[in-house]
């Protein structure tokens, strides 16, 4: 399972990450963050491939994705 997190206090709710996620994992929260925006949040972690496209898109550098390492075949 990938590790995905948003620095909610940076998010301005622009929806770029939500719109560009190829797996439709993200959504906008219905709760305001500390700076008065509705932040992005994960809603279907099981579909996330840890591609990090969302982190690359975010103009606020608000998303952190820890990429999954592939297991070596033995
Ligand atoms: S890492 Fe990729 S699949 Fe996961 S939420 Fe971000 S854009 Fe979607
Ligand atoms: S791209 Fe960044 S600022 Fe925009 S909604 Fe997603 S986390 Fe928030």
Notable traits:
binds iron/sulfur cluster, 74 residues, alpha+beta, Alpha-Beta Plaits, 4 strands
Description:
With 74 residues, the chain is of the alpha+beta class. The protein has a single domain (3-66), classed as Alpha-Beta Plaits (2-Layer Sandwich), CATH 3.30.70.20. It has helices spanning 16-20, 53-57, and strands at residues 3-6, 26-28, 40-42, 63-66. A two-stranded antiparallel ribbon has the order 1-4. It has a two-stranded antiparallel sheet with strand order 2-3. The protein binds iron/sulfur cluster (2 copies).
- Low-confidence spans: pLDDT under 50, at least 5 residues? none
CATH fold field value: Alpha-Beta Plaits
CATH class: Alpha Beta
Ligand kinds: iron/sulfur cluster
* Number of separate domains: 1
Number of helices: 2
Strand content: 15-25%
């Amino acid at each position: 399972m990938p590790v995905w997190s948003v620095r909610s206090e940076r998010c301005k709710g622009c929806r770029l990450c939500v719109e560009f996620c190829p797996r439709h994992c993200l959504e906008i929260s219905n709760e305001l963050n500390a700076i008065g925006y509705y932040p992005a949040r994960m809603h279907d972690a099981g579909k996330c491939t840890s591609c990090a496209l969302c982190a690359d898109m975010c103009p606020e550098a608000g998303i952190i994705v820890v990429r999954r390492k592939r297991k070596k075949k033995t």
